[in-house]
Amino acid sequence: MTPEEKQLLFDQAANENPWFTADNVSQALLSISQLLNQQKLEEWANHYSMDTVNPKRVGVVMAGNIPMVGFHDLLCVLISGHHLMAKLSSGDTVLMKFLIQSLVDIHPSFANYISVAERLNQAQAVIATGSDNTSRYFEYYFRNIPHIIRKNRTSCAVILGEESRDELLLLGKDVFSYFGLGCRNVSKVFVPDGFDFALLIESWHSFQPIIHHHKYANNYDYQKSILLINQVPFFDSGFSLITENKNTVSPISVMYYETYANQDELNSKIQLYTEKIQCIVAAQGWFAKSIPFGNAQLPEVNDYADGVDTMKFLQSLSK
């Protein structure tokens, strides 16, 4: 791809979805490229039996919250030997069609295994990603065929209170990448009682340019007005808002926090949100089942959304 072709692709993606900036698309492409490591793919695929595949038409309802977020499902369906019927998000058709065409260019036989569909009434199994509201529709509509239905999820961070400025800077990547729109973005932090947010806010200063994006800025202004009108205390960095809240999913430009007194209380609080948490980040991954700060948007190929093994589901369709 020439630089001119790349710029045209980025411009078309941004015209379709203003959240898909060149930086965000580049980050998403880098993440995908890291998934496509031959050794990692072979080790991953070897965990599953691919000897007897009875190909099925697998419909995939793709989300469009961050660039090319549907790629992992696309990869799983192709690796498992089934036929992909992709229902693209209206906010992410340019990039997904580019990826599909790129795969066909590399391996022309993929054209026989991929189709873009407006309706999935011919699908024999479905993987659908949406909101808590749309999930109820999906559950009903696809009730008679095998399915995976995903709901709203978000990610959280655990702060011990002894983190360095550099570690907190890495946490900022987990918060602000993709404007915080992904399920792997941190929208809530658990902090010890008496935690001083000044160091956190100072550590995130380099993310200040995010406020220059008009849609993000509109959300910041609106959410700040709501907090002021309702007289809710908050910390304001000038480009993000931090406020105490027991909910896990925060609005764009807002991060929720909750305090804990000790490790037992922290464990109990996180346990309450297990069904809504995609991943947990902590400095150097010290907290149980967490990943290091800065790695939330770099999932491995076996990091399945909602903790449901997509490949195992696809493998079961051949039985």
What does this structure look like?
With 319 residues, the protein is α/β, with parallel strands linked by helices. It folds into two domains: 150 residues, 3-Layer(aba) Sandwich (Aldehyde Dehydrogenase, Chain A, domain 1); 139 residues, Aldehyde Dehydrogenase, Chain A, domain 2, CATH 3.40.309. Helices cover 38% and strands 17% of the residues. The protein contains eleven helices and twelve strands. A seven-stranded mixed β-sheet has the order 8-9-10-7-6-11-12, with helices on both faces. A hairpin with a 4-residue loop joins strand 8 and strand 9. Helix 7 packs across helix 8. The chain is globular, with a radius of gyration of 21 Å. The termini are far apart. The mean pLDDT is 94.
SS-based class: alpha/beta
Strands, total number? 12
Q: Radius of gyration over alpha carbons?
A: 21 Å
Instruction: Look at the structure and name the CATH superfamily of the largest domain.
Output: Aldehyde Dehydrogenase, Chain A, domain 1
Distance between the termini: 41 Å
CATH topology of the largest domain: Aldehyde Dehydrogenase, Chain A, domain 1
Please indicate the count of domains: 2
Order of helices and strands: HHHEHEHEEHEEHEHHEEEHEEH
Biggest sheet character: 7 strands, mixed
- Rounded mean pLDDT score: 94
Shape: globular
Helix % is 25-40%
Please name the CATH architecture of the largest domain. Answer: 3-Layer(aba) Sandwich
The CATH class of the largest domain, by name, is Alpha Beta
Helix count equals 11
